[in-house]
Amino acid sequence: MTNHDRDPAGNASTPAGDTDIVLEARGVTKHFPVRRTVGDLVGRRRRTVHAVDDVSLRLRRGSVTALVGESGSGKSTVARLLSQLYPLTEGEIRLGGTPVKAGRGRSFRAYVKQVQLIFQDPFASLNPVHTVRYHLTRSLKIHGKQATEAEACELLERVQLLPPLQYLDKFPHELSGGQRQRVAIARALGADPKVLLADEPVSMLDVSIRLGVLNLLRDLKERLHLAILYITHDIASARYFADTTLVMYAGRIVEGGDSETVTQQPAHPYTQLLIASAPDPDRVADEEDQEETGSGEPPSLISPPGGCRFHPRCPKAMERCRTELPPRFELDGGQWAACWLYEDRPVSTVVPGAPAKGDGAADTTGDGPAPSTTEVAAK
Ligand code: SF4
């Protein structure tokens, strides 16, 4: 993406004629007021949680975008904002290039018909007193489809619960976690959506069945040309599953690019920390690596640190990092990072977790990685 793709505020703007962009967030911000306490009542200013600040991203047809970060980074809030479950504090959401504000009633139903959210917990997302048949036919009915047994069976076939008649009259407690999540996905497909927002869809499943559900989502992306947002704390799975990866820290997106580049050549010190923390049998991290990648806890979002929010944990922090918010700097192959290390210096040879040259900036020599075939979805 080039600079002319940005609006005057620096947010991503839709390139003319790019019809692959299905859902887009522009400068989306969400602040939650903190419940008043006695202290607030005697004159202290009302406090807010800065859950999401100035998030811009694009979801494209037939493509998976991973949004990766620790617990509390704001990634699930982004999913709820994109699904219009929460009103925005600032910013704009566009569906098919048109700004939308779903509200309630008919307009909300019209929106969720195209944008479906899959929750993390398949145990809680299905009503235990209803059968699979009820859940699927209800979804079909709500979205104006024929709610027949044949249609319900077709949904089960799409999520590879075969033979479908064997599952149709089961209650959620008679299914495994993986089967329940497949039913939740089938129910979402009942709307015939263009976008699936999958909020940690496999994190509550046994490790042995996670891959099957991710493979199912990938298959649906390819067969139905769905745009999928895959929210996860597991950056290793983003490399496997997503075309594009965005990394979120303390309410802001700090790095983006095609998944292979972001996971193999992370530029932002926080992404390097995530990679170093992810289990990898091929890598044995020593103490020096850990010092280079930083440690500590995410900050409070009630009073987030000034400047770069990662600076209290960043081993490469400079003086300006404490006061100046870094903008996004374009790197090679569509990768970008919001980090002062890359000011005016595109990188070509960033090694995961490795110390950079000089004051911490990566080497700018060489041709760098070949441009990705996957355009960065979020700028
Ligand atoms: Fe570290 Fe500064 Fe970059 Fe933030 S801007 S990640 S504190 S070097």
TrEMBL record:
Segment Disordered: which positions?
Answer: 279-308, 349-379
Q: Ranges of Low complexity compositional bias?
A: 352-371
Q: Name one GO molecular function term.
A: ATP binding
| Keyword ATP-binding annotated | yes
A Gene Ontology biological process in which this protein takes part is: peptide transport
The record, for InterPro entries, names:
AAA+_ATPase, ABC_transp_ATP-bind, ABC_transporter-like_ATP-bd, ABC_transporter-like_CS, Oligopep_ABC_C, P-loop_NTPase
Keywords attached to this entry: ATP-binding, Nucleotide-binding, Transport
Metal-binding is among the record's keywords: no
Domain ABC transporter, which positions? 23-275
> Gene3D superfamilies recorded for this chain?
P-loop containing nucleotide triphosphate hydrolases
Q: Which Pfam families match?
A: ABC_tran, oligo_HPY
Q: Where is the composition biased (Acidic residues)?
A: 285-294
Q: Which PANTHER family match?
A: ABC TRANSPORTER, ATP-BINDING PROTEIN, TRANSPORT ATP-BINDING PROTEIN
Q: Which family does it belong to?
A: Belongs to the ABC transporter superfamily.
Instruction: Give the protein's recorded name.
Output: Dipeptide/oligopeptide/nickel ABC transporter ATP-binding protein
Q: Which organism is it from?
A: Streptomyces niveus (Streptomyces spheroides)
